[in-house]
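so im writing up the methods section and need the YdhG-like domain-containing protein record in one place, dumping it here so i stop losing it
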Amino acid sequence: MPVKTAKKAAAKKTAARRVATKAARPGKAVTGSPAPLSASERITQMIASLGDWRGERLAGIRKLIHEADPEVVEDWKWMGTPVWSHNGMYVLANPLKAKVKITFFHGARLPDPKKIFNAGLDGGKWRAIDLREGDKLDTTAFKALLRAAVDYNTTHSVPKSKGSRA
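--- predicted struct ---
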């Protein structure tokens, strides 16, 4: 086999491997492959892939968010973080090794009469709830925080001008 032909064959194999690797990555579009996953599909996929108490907890948190805010928009940010928005981002949830962390973007500005925030209490903006396996979540207080976060975003959102980019 001539040298030029061997080089072309090697280049084709390398290119084929790159395409196969990209196609194997969840949510990545490759020519001829299905469309990328939506944020909601990615969140569902993440929950299913956890296969332990963290997945169950994240599914429960997601359900409570949708109950408290039927107009919520799900998003997928920062290479793998479920985020929920309503007139701007207001809460995210991360399954970590030993806990599920629920972070409120404007948590320091939200009323927390039941004191369910237990992390980030010294910060000037964010507040979080760290839930470990077996921890109980006061769902009534959690939904009240979610509604307060939506109210905060609604009253503090800056309307976009016609010339601004989204």
